[in-house]
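> example.struct
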């Protein structure tokens, strides 16, 4: 009996280590939010009369963080798993398929802009394209309708996100958003994208406000550089297999300046005025606007 008892104790101890080991490992990467009383929505019937999925009925943990309503982690284990996966970009007309990585958004958008130029969907020199970095001081920006999310509403918390906005020169044409990670129509009008993805009317804590660095694509082509150091872990190993093509090097020889683009603070926000478009076309890092200024900027007439 004593032998069986010790064997059972050993098994229980091993089971404890196995089940808690993941939490111990993840604790190195994620900062837990202090526990609060949690609430959940009751199961509700679907249109077909079936009980809705219990997981889908729960409030989004990412929104719980932003609103301070519920216990959650700032970044979930699911996000880490997604970052370790590779995804492919669907075809759209003449825009060919791309090899996408969640940890290389800036390179994906760089190549997308290049392809839009060569395929005739944008000006050959990219003068109607703008690369937009979305982030804030805390590196935590909630966006909706993102493919990386497992939520029905597609909400996810990015450290930073990169999109392309096309401002066509034809009179009366609406700006378009090319977001490779969005589940919305590709491309979408800027107005519908802001309404569905940014949701400016949604009340968030100040730490989760979104700021937008708008960079003119021709300048971005010449100035951006990345040696992909952010795609490696603390031991220097690749988080995911890097793209087959070489790193992007700037015309001036710079090998890495991603941090200059994705580090955005509230103090960087500019006043949108008559010279804003000209400023974007002159400055390497463009200008920074807040979520209520984004549409205003792209609706301005070129002077």
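> example.seq
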């Amino acid at each position: 009996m004593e032998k069986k008892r010790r064997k059972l104790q050993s098994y229980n101890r091993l089971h404890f280590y196995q089940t808690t080991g993941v939490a111990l490992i993840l604790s190195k990467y994620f900062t837990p939010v202090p526990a609060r009383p949690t609430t959940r929505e009751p199961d509700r019937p679907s249109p077909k009369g079936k009980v809705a999925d219990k997981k889908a009925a729960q409030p989004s943990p990412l929104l719980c963080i932003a609103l301070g309503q519920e216990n959650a982690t700032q970044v979930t284990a699911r996000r880490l798993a997604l970052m370790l996966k590779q995804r492919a970009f669907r075809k759209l007309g003449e825009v060919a398929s791309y090899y996408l990585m969640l940890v290389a958004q800036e390179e994906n958008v760089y190549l997308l802009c290049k392809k839009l130029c060569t395929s005739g969907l944008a000006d050959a020199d990219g003068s109607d394209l703008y690369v937009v970095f979305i982030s804030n001081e805390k590196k935590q920006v909630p966006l909706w309708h993102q493919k990386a999310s497992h939520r029905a509403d597609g909400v996810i918390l990015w450290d930073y996100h990169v999109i392309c906005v096309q401002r066509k020169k034809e009179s009366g044409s609406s700006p378009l958003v090319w977001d490779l990670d969005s589940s919305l129509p590709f491309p979408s009008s800027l107005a519908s994208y802001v309404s569905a993805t940014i949701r400016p009317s949604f009340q968030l804590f100040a730490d989760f406000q979104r700021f937008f660095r708008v960079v003119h694509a021709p300048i971005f082509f010449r100035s951006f550089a990345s040696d992909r150091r952010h795609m490696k872990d603390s031991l220097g190993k690749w988080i995911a297999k890097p793209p087959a093509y070489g790193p992007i090097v700037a015309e001036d020889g710079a090998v890495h300046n991603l941090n200059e683009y994705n580090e955005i603070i509230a103090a960087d926000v500019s006043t949108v005025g008559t010279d804003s478009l000209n400023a974007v076309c002159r400055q390497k890092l463009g200008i920074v606007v807040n979520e209520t200024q984004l549409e205003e900027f792209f609706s301005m007439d070129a002077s």
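> remarks
Residues 273 and 297 are 8 Å apart (CA to CA).
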